[in-house]
Amino acid sequence: MRLAEIAVHKVGLDLSMPPGRSPPPVLPSLWGQRHFSRSGRYNLLVRQLTLHLRSILPVGALLLAMISVQSGASIAKTLFPIAGPVGIVTVRVGFGTLILCLALRPWRARIRREAWPPLVVYGLALGTMNFLYYQALDRLPVGIAVAVEFIGPLTVAVLSSRRSIDFLWIAIAAAGFVLLLPVLPQGRQSSVTGILFALGAGACWGLYIVFGQRAGNHLGTQTVALGSVISALLIVPFGLLHARSALFSRDVLLPGLAVALLSTALPYTLEMIALTRLPTRTFGVLMSLEPAVGTLAGWLLLQERLTVWQCSAIALVMSASIGATATARQNMAAPVPD
């Protein structure tokens, strides 16, 4: 899931010109000004291209992060017949925590007494979220599981705003959710148990955001690694008791390491690139595309084909998320990185 979201809430990249200087002319006018030397025009062109690349880089990094996460989920689903969702989430959480600890070295963090409660809740929410999400993946297509889970953070965003327009986003998300329910003919491919697991994962995602924000105010980026350690302490012993020797099979460990890299290390790095260069609202809007990325990953890697109604339901949830993000007020404090 999204381990980098609590690390930085908004860090802008200021590409404006220094005071007293006007920006360079746009590209079409560069070639029409004869007083520029050839080298001068070339330097200005390079600068313009550099600025464009700087604006494209974070968007591309975030899209790659989403592709990485959903590809990791799809690969994990192919391992369920060997070790089950409990075993695979154990391998994913265990390897992911090890990678984060090696990268962030959380043992250097000084944890004050007031930081422990939000940190513990954050870590427990993270572990439970992953556990429930993998249970949902075992029963639902990837795109549907992601869309239903998205209702959790969407609810947090709407409740934190409490404006009249937010009732519109609630109604749109609710319409999409109803279309996914198996009680309707359009949702006959969905599983009631899978939907409930995905809703539970979404609720934990909401707790993850709220308490991750609070813990991040005390611990900065170390919150991610420390929370992962708590998550591993919750999940790994249970997984060892459940899956036992199946966890140590070569057919599980090597692909499990790949799942951990795709689901943790790579997206964490890419999201940090995006977070330090994109406004929060832009980041949130782009993140709302994740159910579509999950649907595409499930189709390409697992041959999961959704009906038109299911795709429409996912589109409604995405629209609600985009709308809530685009109209949200920027009033949350940012965790301060170390």
Overview of the molecule:
Helices cover 72% and strands 0% of the residues. The chain has 338 residues and is mainly alpha-helical. It has one domain (27-326). The radius of gyration is 22 Å and the shape is globular. The two termini are 22 Å apart. The model is unreliable at 3-33 and 331-338 (pLDDT under 50).
Short overview:
The protein has 338 residues and is mostly helical. The protein has 13 helices and no strands.
Task: Please state the structural category.
Answer: mainly alpha
Strand fraction: under 5%
Radius of gyration: 22 Å
What's the total number of strands? 0
Element string (H = helix, E = strand): HHHHHHHHHHHHH
Stretches with pLDDT under 50, minimum 5 residues: 3-33, 331-338
Query: What form results from the Cα inertia axes?
Result: globular
Helix share, percent: over 70%
The end-to-end distance, rounded to whole angstroms, is: 22 Å
**Largest beta-sheet characterization:** none
Instruction: Compute the average pLDDT.
Output: 82
Tally of helical segments: 13
Overall number of structural domains: 1
